[in-house]
Each structure stands twice: as structure tokens, then as C-alpha cells.
## 1
Amino acid sequence: MTEDTQDDRDVLPALNNDDIKTNVYEGGFKTWECSLDLAKIIADSFTRGDEPQHERLHCIELGCGTALPTMTIFRQMICQTSSSEHHVYFTLADYNYDVLRLASLPNLLLCWANTIKHNSELAADDDLEITPELLKEFVADLRQRNIQIDFISGAWSERFVHVLDQRFPSTYTLILASETIYSPFTLNPFTKLLMHLLSRIGNEDSKALIAAKKVYFGVGGGMDEFLTILTSMGGAAREIAVPGREEHGVARVILEVAKS
């Protein structure tokens, strides 16, 4: 796990009932509505047989939080990948180290145990007893399946890009992000990071799926602002429909983003 220089030791006591505390906590312990939309789109693509068919796949979730979209792909991969034919890399990034430690990673571990071990390790109350033996089995099983998971905490920055450039090969990449464009102050660095990741890949099939509300009232961000910046940086986007979703309150959108 790679950390930025920020100190997250005060994140948990500072939470209280706030969804977000700027520059302290960015909402990662909550599963937001748009992440559910994105997970549904991904699950539907596997149902249709439209999942990535590349021998090497790098899935990056920016602002992952509880990592529901990544878990949707992760579960499919551990069901399908039982040999060395495929290599799958997962990179989960969140502003807060504590979110990765207490939400993202435990959710992946639970997903693996529930899928591979067919509930045999789950107690009657659906709790999973995490033992050293279970962790060793988890790591060994992923290694056998050529699945690698990395975690990066910190703000959108050049250091984040440097870590990815140094550690991962250029390959087909799917970038996921939910509720990451709510703040006008992070729109520019987020979009810059997004376009850099799409540009470094060198693969026309690589893309990003961005799920967000059309407008974030009281905060200032939203889809229009994001699209304006994206276009200025050489990106293009198309809207993806979410089948069966009922709209309540603020409209939500999923965009497929690529280089123009």
C-alpha cells in the first residue's frame, strides 16, 4: 500500500455525522448512489458477455471508498481466472488511508471468501473471522490466479501518476470513478489525472466509466463543469443508460470517457 504524506490518524475521530470534511475525509466509508449505478452497469456487461477479453487488464478505481464497482469485476475475475492465461491488476485509490484499510480491503477479502469458499468460513451472523491462515490463503489464491491488488492513498497528484507509471505495464486499462466530481476545487486535478491515465495506456480500447450526479447542490461541481474541462483537455464522453433505474431526486449519469 502506497501512502501520500498526509496524516490520516485523526480521520476516524473527526467523522461524527459528516459525509465529507474537506482535506480531512472525502466520504469513503459511505456507499454512494452512483457507485451502485456503476456496479450495475459492470454486472450487466458481464451478463451480456461484454466483459474485457484482454490477456492483461488493469482496473483502476479512483476515489474507491467501499469499492463496490471494483468488487463487481473482482468477483467475476476470481470466478473465471483459474490459470496463468490472464493477468489482472487492481489499483484502488482513496484520499484516506483509513478507508482503504477499514473498508476497501476488508470488502475485497469478504467478497473473495464468500465467492471462493462458498460461505464455509462465515459464521452464523455472516461475520468473517480473519485469521493469519485465511490471509495467507487469500494472498496465495490471488497469486495463483495472477490477480494483483495495490492500494494508493492521497490526493490526485503527480506522485500518484508516478507510482502507476513505475509499477504497472502499459496494457488495457479500465478506470472507474463514482462521485468524484462534486467539488470545483478537485475537478481540474481529477480530469488531468484521468486524461494522463488514458494517454499513457496507448490502447484505443482503454476507457473510463465516470458515475456522478448531474448537479451537486451546495457544493458547486457537476457534469457540465466536468465535461467543459474534459473537452478542453482532449477528452470525449458519451452517456450510458442504466437499465431499470428509477430516478429520484437529483438526476444521475454514467459517462464513458476516452481520448477524443
Note: The helical segments are 11-14, 33-48, 68-80, 97-116, 132-144, 158-167, 184-201, 223-232.
## 2
Amino acid sequence: MSVSPQFELATLELEKVKGVVSNDDLLLCYAYFKIAHKTDFSAAKQPGTFDFTGKYKYNAWKKEVEAGLTPADAQKKYIELVEAKKKELGYDPKKTTMENGKKIEPEKQKRFEQLSKQLGKNQ
């Protein structure tokens, strides 16, 4: 199973959320993304002692794998989380710069526009 267009669009919409998404929510997105893409957790290397970010990501992913989350359910949960963040923090589909000041890559913006049109989402 490949990822759905709705899931792919949600990954792009997350960059267009106004405000700062919490680290806990970003960790969930990371775990859901890895599972949705069927990334093999058993092949993942455990992060080093001082790689704190890596440890948080690894542990979030591990928790969802151990809970038995399926790729289809991971996609669904990711989409639901992004929709909740859009409602909570606001959303600007025309946004070209993320909250951290980093520009949204042109190819991502183009893909966002394609998927939005394909899925009938208003921009």
C-alpha cells in the first residue's frame, strides 16, 4: 500500500499551519509518517547517548509500533492531527514561509497545489 493523496496533502499542509506545533505533536507526526511509509523499525539504529532529538523520535516511533499501529491507521491519525492543528492554530494555504522562517520548497508548493486541486480542497 502506498500513501494516499490525502495523507500526502496533510504532510504538506502541516507546513502551512499558523503558529508553532508542539514538540509532542511533531513527534506523533514523525511516528505516524514512518509507520505510514512502512519504514522498518527493526532496522532502525538506536540513537547515540547525546542524540536527544533522535531518542525522542525513536521512542515515539517505537511506542506506536509496539501499540500495533497499522500503516492505514497511521495515515488516518496523521491526517486527523493535522486537521486538529489547522483548527487550533490557524491555517494559511498561501503561506510560503514556515514559522521557523524557512521557505517552503518550490517543489513542495507545486505538489501542494496539485493535490489540493486533485482533492477539491480550497486554496
Note: DSSP finds five helices and no strands in the chain.
## 3
Amino acid sequence: MQRKTIAIINATGRQAASLARVASAVGYHVRGHLVKREGIVAQELENLPNVDLLEGRLEDKELVKKLFANAQLAFINTTSWGDEVAIGKSLADAAKKAGVQHYVYSSMPDHGAFGKGWPSLPQWSSKFTVENYIRQIGLPATFVYTGIYNNNFTSLPYPLFCMELRPDGSFEWKAPFHPDRPLPWLDAEHDVGPAVLQIFKDGIRKWSGQRIALAFEVLTPRQVCAAFAKGLGRKVRYVCGPIEIKVSIPNGYREQLDGLQLLFGKYQAPYFGLDLQAPEEALKLWEGFRGIEEYAREVFPLEEAANGRTWMN
């Protein structure tokens, strides 16, 4: 049986790296794109079996041609750096021309399209635009919509998911989400890879044109803090309040944060819009997920230590 090749872009990202690790371990050939061979994840990928890396920008059509050459499968998670819509359309065109048989695109909803008066989030609506283009050109594709990353939490003063360390040793998470409104959660590094690999195994016949909510827990902010507290063995409190920006943030991200505050704070819109529910579909793909409590106990302290924090010592 011929070994299948999976083409992956932005291979050092949480979603893509998760798939690269799992796919290479079970014998798929992974051809991964990255902008630069820098950082711990890039070094890890270079040392994995069955992984070849291409370095460069996705605006380079020759690089993209090499990426998809003789690849049967592709996992594409575009980012907001650069013209995401133009890059997303160009990748889809190249994949179709190369004959990719199953294209899994990491998309997100455009809440402005539901006719409810909800705002469109700039970094999500661009993905939805690309998704619609993929459908229009007839590329055989499946679309995964990811929940909130467990890995977003940090005690560093970043907006929205700062788990602030208090003087008494407890933590406090302040965000605009309603305390008792359920939200979908995903450990991207641990669980995207196995789930997407199962989609590939099931095949395009089962998943052609389908949207899948990729989230394995649905928890309210209060429940998240309770799970965090159990994992850490410390008190963790949730405070519903406006997003606080205490550090410099990338261009365009403020508009995304303002939109998030309106969409999920003021309007309390469903995270995936009106069409998708979690976690039932995700759990059919992969049962071995890492939940918030396990993440808080096993991973959060390690990530904090890597960021120079010492509270766990």
C-alpha cells in the first residue's frame, strides 16, 4: 500500500504541529511548510521521522507547488499575518491543480452572516471567506472549527486569557464572557492531530463538505476555573469584566478583541454560530482528549516555567 503524503502549512503552529507529530508517528509522510526554521517546535519537527520541511513564504507559488506535489491529503490553517484571504484562495487553487484528494481547512464562523445583528470578527470572517471559496471551486474538503485553546491561558499580562497570579497565591481570570454561558474548549497541541488524522482515515466520502466543531469540553467560565483549581490545587476565581490590554498587541488584534467583547459579552452569541454543536462530533473522532483539569495539572505549570514564571516552585 502506497504511503500517503500530508501537506501542512504553518507547521510550527499548535494545530499543524499536533497533526505532524501524530501523522509522522504512524507512518504518513508529512511535508510541512514553515516561514523560518527557528524555535523549539521547528527543531522538534526536523527531528521527527517521515517529515520534510519547506521554508519560505506562502506567496511564493513555486514553494506552494512543491508543497502539494504528489500529496494526497492537506491540512491548512491560514493565519492573519499577510493577506489571509488571498493566500487561502491561492492555496486552494494550487491544491486543486495538484489533485489533492482530501483538503481539511481550519475555518471559523462569520457571525455577521447569521442575520442576528452580531458583529463579524475580522480574524474569523476571513477564514469563512476562504471556506466559501474552497466550496465554490469544488475542492474535496472538510472544515474544522476549533474551540478555545486550553493553551491560551497564561499568567503573563496578555489580554483575554490572563490567569493572573494574586498576592495570596490564588489565580484570577477576568474576561467578558458570561460566568454561566457554556463555551467550547480544546487542547490544540494534544487533540487536533488525532482528530484530523481520523477525519483523513474516514475519508472524503464521509466528510465531504462537512463542518466539524472541534472541541472536547463545553464548560462555563466558572466551571473552567473550578477545573483549573482542582488541577492546580489553588483557588481560581472568575471575574466577568471588560478585556484589559496591558501590553503591546499586534496590528489588527485590537479590532478582534473589541469584536469578541461585543459578540460574546454583550450579545452572548453561541461560539460556533447557529449550525454547530460540541462536543459530540469531536468525541466520535477522538476519545483520548486532554481536558482543562488535566491541562492545568500537567501542562500549565510547564508552560509557565518556560515563560520564566516561578510560582510553581
Note: The longest helix spans residues 84-98.
## 4
Amino acid sequence: MLQPVVPYGFLSLPRELRDQIYEYVLSSNAEVMEPYDLEEGLVPAIIRTCKQVESEGCAVLYTKYTYLFNIPPWDLEWLTTIGKANVMRLKTIRIVVAPTYWKSLWYRLLHSLARDAKGLRHVYIFWDCDDFDGIGKDVRFVRELGAIQHPESTTVDGYYGLHWPGYLTDKMNARFEKKTASKSTGRV
């Protein structure tokens, strides 16, 4: 009589144990990941072993970290590279906007995040300033940002127009936290 085949190997482990292994293998000392960090070696070969491991591992990888968006050309390329399924898994993002650089690419990046990153829960944005003439007063930029739906928390910091907190609170259905006030300009 034939003996029943007993599965063995990584996929025979319970899912909870595999998730712990993914957390260990995909760990990084960085609290905030820059997308190009992943291209420089964080994603180990385990993600490339089979479709099931890729799906399970990416679920851990893209939900665990805060991802920094600060260079729109690279960030847009990274979103395309990881695909819509993984963009939907992103939970926490940090957006740091340098003064007046790449305006049209920032619009595209925010539009892509609003369209595809449906799992976002935490959004932090910092508007840098250049003699109080940065992108923080750009109406289209704020409208694109406001299109990101239903994060649990939105933190805005830096230099931006005084009416943006109310607008972003209404549009994003999120708690708004004022973090930085400027000196005598009347801008927050």
C-alpha cells in the first residue's frame, strides 16, 4: 500500500509562521524606506521563488514600512515597477516636496497614488520652502493630494497656504495635524 505524501518545505509551514519568516527576512534597520532602496538589494531571492511566496512576501514588504516619496521621476518609475497590486498594499507614505521642483511630475505622482494606493492609512507630507515661494501654495498640487481617499491620519508639515488644512481635512476625510508654524508670514 502506498503511503500518503506528506508535504514538506517552506510552503508546508503554517501561514502565520511563514509571515514571521517574511518579517525577519525582509527586515531593514530603516524606519522609512526610499523606493530605490528596494532596487539596491532589500528584496531577497525569497520573493522570487514562486508566485505564492511572492504574493505573501510582498504583502509583508509593502505594508510594513513607511515609503518616502521625494524624487518624483524615480518614485513614478518605482510605482510602475512594483505594479498596481503592490501599490494597493502601501499603508504609510511620507512625501517630502522640495521647492518648485518637478511640478508636473508631482501632479502625476499624486494622481497615481490617489488612483492606485487604495490601502493607504497614514500620509505625512512636508512642504519645503524657498523664500516662501515653494509648491506649498500650488492649488493643483493640493487638489491632487486631496484626491487621496480615506487615510486614517494625515500630517502636514512645512510651509503651505493657510486654507489648505480645512480643504485637505474635507477632501481626505482625515484628521489634520498642524505641526510647523512659520515666523511672521502668516503662513503655516
Note: The longest strand covers residues 92-97.
